[in-house]
Amino acid sequence: MNLEKLMRIDRRLIFLLIALAVIFPLLFPIGLPTHLSKPVQDTFNAVDSIPPDGPPLMLSIDYDPAAMPELYPMTLAILRHCFSRNIRVLILTLHRAGPGIGEMATTRIAKEYGKKEGEDYVYLGFKPGFGAVILRMGEDIHGAFLTDYYNRPIGEIPMMREIHNYDDIPLVICLSAAAIPELWMMYAGSRYHQTIAAGVTAVSAADYYPFLQTDQLVGLIGGLKGASEYEKLVNELEERLGVDKKRKESLSKEEYEKLQVSHSKASAGMDSQSIAHLVIIAFIVIGNVAYFAQRRKKR
Amino acid sequence: MNLSLDPWVWLAALLTLCIYSFLYKDNPFYKAAEHLFVGLSAGYFLVIYWYNAVYPDMVVPLFKQGKLLCIIPGLLGLFFFFRFIPKVGWVSRWSIAFYIGVGAGMSIPATMQMRILEQMKGTMQPFFSLETWHIFVENPSLASFGALIGIPLMIVGVMCTLSYFFFSREHKGVLGGMSRIGIIFLMIGFGASFGYTVMARISLLIGRVQFLMSDWLGVID
């Protein structure tokens, strides 16, 4: 093929090939293996170390619908992990577009696991102010959030009677598509020595690795790949705990299969991810070969 | 194929296609979807802020509980809008000054601690660890080799990258060599970030394609 033609390739052809690379593996799954990474395993271990029915995990859902393909499967997997081990969860959002996502994820998983609002989990909703809210919660969560998402006064919620500040929270997980995990590290980590883990979009994952080495983050879930790893760990845990077996017995075959699919949503996308990456690598190689060949020809 | 009968799913699917039509070329469908998104977001956020901040944190305490101190933040908030009246626009500077002052006061010490002191502490490690050497000798693998060279590599990377940003001397001799190695570390860093960015964009596409093929068309589970 003429290399000059290759350099002027219509970008729409590239879009089409990427679309095909994404669509075909979804239609005909290949089942490429994904390997577990240490930061995801560390996050899982940190959640797993929280005693059942003890102090709650704080889950901060700080993203908007644009980041949902990557972060929503993480949210569901973390909530499933907590509820399957009877770990209580305190959920909030510092992002203005987060309240709806938080409510959707929480009610869906709580219903699936038969968890009760106010006893097994509390959804605090949204409070603007980022750093100011994080700092305020270090002093008094009841002062930062006067009511929960459903307008119930915090003092009247049974689970909140024992929770006052970060001393009562063993772990905070911030799921964010922006720099909000940095604010958690800045205000809750540095000032109150709060243990923090983060789930971030792949775009920002590289920026957070230095914080793992210094233990400012105990774990990191990066992008759809990280979500699929966490999902896999939770699925294995549920098998070990017998949660999956109970579910299989109580649901119809169709319902069970549907639920299994929804529990592997991130993993289902990994074939497409790998194939699309191969296509992009091929284009980068072809582009470079064509560029250098053309430069040599000009000389 | 199990086509959705939910009108909201249809609306979401058609709007997704409108947005993706931009990949072919700019067109009225894309523009309509874009404007709808901007308008909808503005309205949604206005309502969210009213019900989550202005009403519970100012209107209720001030007008229902008689907490007069709430007048101060309320007025500071209102002063921002004075920018729309040129004659008294200067009043908004009070609010901006307050906002910047509080923000800087809160973030400067915390940023120092999080970004500089903690990161410096993380870099001040023994160059060579006997423990990791023993682990490598007992169990030679890629992981144990990575653990062995991890700290020296990090220290060399930090020193060389910092030397690249040292501009008070010409980059010649030892400094020149170090800064060239620093460039390699920087390039690897940029490459990793770019790789992650590609991965993120593909993930977003996968999310939308999954929605279209599963929720809308019903061709996959």
What does this structure look like?
- Chain A contains 14 helices and 6 strands.
- Chain A has helices at residues 3-7, 11-27, 38-48, 68-84, 98-113, 131-139, 141-144, 180-192, 202-213, 223-241, 243-250, 253-262, 265-268, 270-298, and strands at 57-62, 89-93, 121-126, 171-176, 196-200, 219-222.
- The model of chain A has no long low-confidence stretch (mean pLDDT 93).
- Chain A has a 6-stranded parallel β-sheet, sandwiched between helices.
- Chain B has 221 residues and is mainly alpha-helical.
- Chains A and B meet through α2, α4, α6, α8 and α9 of A and α2, α4 and α7 of B.
CA radius of gyration of chain B is 28 Å
Cα-to-Cα separation, first versus last residue of chain B: 10 Å
Number of strands of chain B: 0
- For the record, the CATH architecture of the largest domain in chain A stands as 3-Layer(aba) Sandwich
Q: Would you tell me the overall average pLDDT of chain A?
A: 93
Structural class of chain B: mainly alpha
Instruction: Kindly state the number of beta strands of chain A.
Output: 6
Q: What form of chain A results from the Cα inertia axes?
A: globular
Oligomer: heterodimer
Query: What's the pLDDT, averaged over the residues of chain B?
Result: 92
